[in-house]
Amino acid sequence: ARMRVAVVGAGVSGLTATKCCLEEGLEPTCFEQSRDIGGLWRYTEYIEAGRPSLYPSVISNTSKEMSAFSDFPYPEDFPVFLPNAQLLEYLRHYAERFGLREHIKFGTTVVSVRKRPDFATTGQWDVVTEADGKQTSHIFDAVMVCSGNFSEPSLPLHCFPGIERFQGQYFHSRQYKHPDVFQGKRVLVVGMGNSGVDIAVEASRVATKVTISTSRGAWVLSRMFDNGYPWDMVFNTRLMSLIRNSLPGPLSWGLINYRANQWFKHENYGLQPENRYFLPVLNDDLPSYILTGRITIKPGVKEFKDNSVVFHNCPGEEPIDIVVFCTGYDISFPFLEEAVVKVENKHASLYKYVFPTHLQRPTLAVLGLIKPLGAIMPVTEMQARWVTRVFKGRRANMSSPMYQNAVQNGHVLFGLSFDEVLKTDCLVYTDKLASFIGAKPSVLGLLCRDPRLALTVFFGPCTPYQYRLGGPGRWEGARQAILTQWDRTLKPTRTRVPAGSSSSCPSLLTVVGFLLLLAALVFGF
């Protein structure tokens, strides 16, 4: 009999999990509480409990070539950075192309996932779902949790003394949809993640005054890097990754700081992060809005008064009408027992961020909980490719001594803190998982067989198609997709001049890269 797998959620992770199950000959049933696919990327005007909530202007922070599933490139005429509606359209195409919809049960909430009494021998789970007020129980051989981490807003009001006497309006960024609520108001945005900066920029177009309060600052990158190339296609290359990881920590961070400060000097704008190791925020407008006085940056909030706010180390108080708390999200798995995934202080003990470390059998996996400095799609897809092979009992590194130790000692070996570890270098991480299943591209191997491809793989952006060149799930179109990645990137913007054949990589970058590579080899070893 085929192995039955429950997939929780039909967003980015759930869709690719369902597809990987089908690819490995497993039998997936995907439960989605809402009436449609897309998860985070499906915009709704109203806010639904337990579901992520988007504002209409959200645009992806990663470029389309880097955000594709590895065997399904975006249409060439799609813009390079995708408005949420087009990202959703892509997910719909994906679901259609691989026949995923027939495996999804819509309007069905997963109420509980519990180990069966004979779990130690069978690894099976009792899953209870609810649809139209009726509960049903099922038995599954394995479970893939793809419910994301943008549903439970984190609003620690106790950290903001005086908020209870504040007369104005306040809400969490999850409630935000349109900037018109800020018309003519004095707005305070607390927190400086991507949403915080987006909302501040939008508000400043209609508000009287906008202030961002951040206790720790942030690196801000633009979607556009040197010569107008997408930031992630320049930043996430195998060459750059090798340099970042061969240099001693402080040097490699120095390089990143230098890059961030090239666009604008952060300390002059009040943004210099206290601690260097922060995930950058992506926003194209912030520095110019600070420069034109539309947005002011202040330190953390000390306390609220009736109609104003006091900041740490700042004399006087600032009058405020409306506060937006962009304080992020808590991770929660309401359908799992505490014992399965222990989340303490935003930490979960998961081997490679995927498998709970203390289960006797690896038949439950959590996908897409990672915040890479790059696109989530290829990372979560690789997690799914690995997990489905572990479920099938393929040699896929669950017998490694490291995992066994983690299980025995109940170690939080890969303590997953949503603010620190999750900034794992996505290239190194994806490579690691790819090597577990034998899908990691070998640059040296390619160099002999296909030098042009090898150079593109090494010097060019590390696009997801690289993980389909060989191994299980090999895709015939991978080589062609890699060699045409710049064409698809330039097509939507070279709309007035005929598109010539593009250079496969900015040439100066290659030369500098090669010199840096030599330096890295000389000093790194």
Tell me what the structure shows:
- The chain has 525 residues and is an alpha/beta fold.
- It has 3 domains: 4-151 and 330-432, FAD/NAD(P)-binding domain (3-Layer(bba) Sandwich); 155-238 and 263-327, FAD/NAD(P)-binding domain (3-Layer(bba) Sandwich), CATH 3.50.50.60; 441-523, no CATH class.
- The chain is built from 16 helices and 26 strands.
- The longest helix is centred in the last third of the chain and has 18 residues, at 507-524.
- Residues 405-422 have low confidence and may be disordered.
- Belongs to the FMO family.
- It holds the Pfam family FMO-like.
- Keywords: Endoplasmic reticulum, FAD, Flavoprotein, Membrane, Monooxygenase, NADP, Oxidoreductase, Transmembrane, Transmembrane helix.
- Its EC number is 1.14.13.148, 1.14.13.8.
Salient structural properties:
FAD/NAD(P)-binding domain; 16 helices; single chain; five-stranded parallel β-sheet; 19% strand; alpha/beta; globular; 3 domains; 525 residues
Please give the order of strands in the largest beta sheet.
5-2-1-9-25
Mean pLDDT comes to 89
Strand content range:
15-25%
Q: At CATH's second level, what is the architecture of the largest domain?
A: 3-Layer(bba) Sandwich
* Unreliable residue stretches: 405-422
Distance between the termini: 52 Å
InterPro entries: FAD/NAD-bd_sf, Flavin_mOase, Flavin_mOase-like, Flavin_mOase_1, FMO-like
Main location: endoplasmic reticulum
Keywords: Endoplasmic reticulum, FAD, Flavoprotein, Membrane, Monooxygenase, NADP, Oxidoreductase, Transmembrane, Transmembrane helix
Enzyme class: oxidoreductase
